[in-house]
Amino acid sequence: MNNLPALSPLLIADAVRAALQEDLGRAGDITTQATIPASAQASAVIAAREEGVIAGLPLAREAFAQIDAEIAFEPCVEDGAHVAPGAVVARIKGSARGVLGAERVALNYLGRLSGIASLTERFAARIAHTKAKVCDTRKTTPLLRAFEKYAVRCGGGSNHRFGLDDAILIKDNHIAVAGGVARALRAAKAFKGHLVKIEIEVDTLAQLREVLAEGADVVLLDNMSLEDLREAVAMIGGRMIAEASGGVTLESIAAIAETGVDLISVGALTHSARVLDLGLDVVVEN
């Protein structure tokens, strides 16, 4: 996919290094050391056991490279590619000890991110007939957010904010403490820089009227009925971006999109995605 963002090589290197350290422990791969000669070479393929969308190839490549820089890693598809069962995703060749030592870390990253991409693709397909886009949330695995949000893009979804520091999102608890919708919005506008967007969450059409009176960049319509969503979109009239959220499922997303909202945020993209079944098969070279 040509529109994918580039993952930071520094983030990749640090994450993979930590994962390898966790797996190799204090003594390294003692099983491989005990059973495989240091001189043994191996060829291997990473193959899809089921249909899905691939994401995470840069992390898989880095796992083999950090174990042994001489290991050759050749992707057979690109991130964002839809693969069928049995498809070869990558070919690996080099030290057998190195291939086996990096295998699990490479597959863990690749399977996790491909699972997110695959689930995102399913959500996106359900609303392809509408203008709405499906986007992620901050409900991500600690320390894996950048990678999991990248996987959402691989699956055809969009990214919401990456953290608490890149946009102002006023939620129900902020409104409660601040003393209401109007006070929260006025305070946010007085605080923000000129490049910072303001989004505010509302639960009712009455709250939405307050938002429309004060102004915001985005309004988050949380857990509203389909009828209320349609009325909310009509009230907004294109003056701000309309985002729907709250318990969105594969079964409900199409009807939500058909109300006319611009974005639909789905926490399940990252917190409930099943790992895509990928395997590494080794052929030993004599």
Considering the chains and any ligands shown, give keywords for the structure.
286 residues; alpha/beta; Aldehyde Oxidoreductase, domain 3; TIM Barrel; 2 domains; 6-stranded parallel beta sheet; 4-stranded antiparallel beta sheet; 12 strands; 20% strand; elongated
Give the SSE map.
Elements: H1 9-24, H2 30-35, E1 41-48, E2 52-53, H3 57-67, E3 72-75, E4 82-83, E5 88-95, H4 96-126, E6 133-135, H5 145-154, E7 168-170, H6 172-178, H7 181-191, E8 198-202, H8 205-214, E9 218-222, H9 226-236, E10 241-245, H10 253-257, E11 263-265, H11 268-271, E12 278-285
Helix pairs in contact: 1-3, 1-4, 3-4, 4-5, 7-8, 8-9
Question: How would you describe this protein?
Answer:
The structure is a single chain. By secondary structure, the chain is α/β, with parallel strands linked by helices. The protein folds into two domains: 9-118 and 273-285, Quinolinate phosphoribosyl transferase, N-terminal domain (Aldehyde Oxidoreductase, domain 3, Alpha-Beta Complex), CATH 3.90.1170; 125-271, Aldolase class I (TIM Barrel, Alpha-Beta Barrel), CATH 3.20.20. It is built from eleven helices and twelve strands. The chain has helices spanning 9-24, 30-35, 57-67, 96-126, 145-154, 172-178, 181-191, 205-214, 226-236, 253-257, 268-271; strands at 41-48, 52-53, 72-75, 82-83, 88-95, 133-135, 168-170, 198-202, 218-222, 241-245, 263-265, 278-285. It has a six-stranded parallel beta sheet. Strands 3-5-1-12 form a four-stranded antiparallel beta sheet, with helices on one face. Strands 2-4 form a two-stranded antiparallel sheet. The longest helix has 31 residues, at 96-126. The mean pLDDT is 96.
